[in-house]
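Q: Got a minute? One more chain.
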Amino acid sequence: MTKDTNHFDWGELSTENLKITQKVIRITLNFLQLQPTNSLSLTNRIPLQKFENEQLYLEDVSGVLNKIDGIEVTNVQLLGELKEWRSKRVRFPSVVSAYEENEALLYLPSEEELKNYVFLQINSLDELHQTKDKIDYLLGTLNFEKNDKDKKEIPSQANNQILTAADKKKLCILEKLKEEWDLVSKKNNEEVVIEVSWQRNIQWQGECGIDDSQFENILQGFKDENLLDGFRFFREQDINPGL
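A: Always. Here it is, folded:
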């Protein structure tokens, strides 16, 4: 079940379709977390009602998940096999053995089940998790740009000039830092070292519309401006190896 998904550009989706994609992936992952681990190599089924509760339909679910490697919605395929089996049983009743009929009944869902469940063939969830991160980042960036656009332009107190996009990103990060660290202590000759977790790094990048390189350059700029003494990025495993 290998699909050519590497060339699909999620960034080309509209904001509305990104939100649909985010919902589909969230519901799918939340449901699969409760399933036995050894079932991931088999066919899983998710009640369609879970998606319909958020105004999503089978076409939405198929359209999203069938673009992701390692997972496939098989409702259409199973319906075709069910119809083929029924046709064979009607046309050649003497050829169909009791064993074959029992096997078909065990393997194939009914039409009612196909209407009420999303059937998934899963090989791996790695790409699904990676796609979730991409969509979350894209929506985080779009939300920041929208909020930024909606805000009134703030003139600089120094020269009464409009803040540039780069200045706004720096200001966004500076506000995040002030929420966590006392940067005033730097002015009182106390050492200020910023330690940013990987999770917070991803979150702030999305909210401030920056990437890894821009984030590091902004922090280096703050260091050069003597707002802080140093900074480092870490993963939670560095502190709690057992996690």
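A: The radius of gyration is 26 Å.
Q: Perfect, thanks.
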